[in-house]
Amino acid sequence: MRAQRASHMTRPRLRMLFTDLDRGVYRGHSQRPGGLAPLNKRLNKTPLNLKIKKLSTSLALLLLLQMVIPMPAVAASYSKDELRVYAHSRIVSYKEFKCFDSIILKESSYNYLARNGSHYGIGQMRSTYYQSRDPYTQIDLTIAYCLKRYSSICNAWSFHKKHGYY
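RESULT FIELD:
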């Protein structure tokens, strides 16, 4: 049988077989001289890779548009307790802090977006500059106002109790 098989293979077929092996054909799979480049080209054309490319292009476009077109700012949420702790860190005396806390609870209850007529923010100041500030800056400005006008925050609170404003 072996003799028949060997005789079945003619010289041109043997030559073609060895030539194919030299070119990189092995068990029906061709290995091209480009190494993995042809394989990578085929992989890049798969539906999953095309979807990934489209998605990455869409994300890049979205990021570019977000940089060019101004998006409306989303108001950050500040907790009342967080703002109270911040105020207490600015006012060393506990007595002064309690006076400040009483004023703010009466005026806005630490709502930095509060509005009462032409008065804005945590300390209900009349300035639009004050309105556009973040709550921490509003607290700093309210403390500075109380200290400048009344020389202490407790004096501002006693004035507020008598007159209903400070």
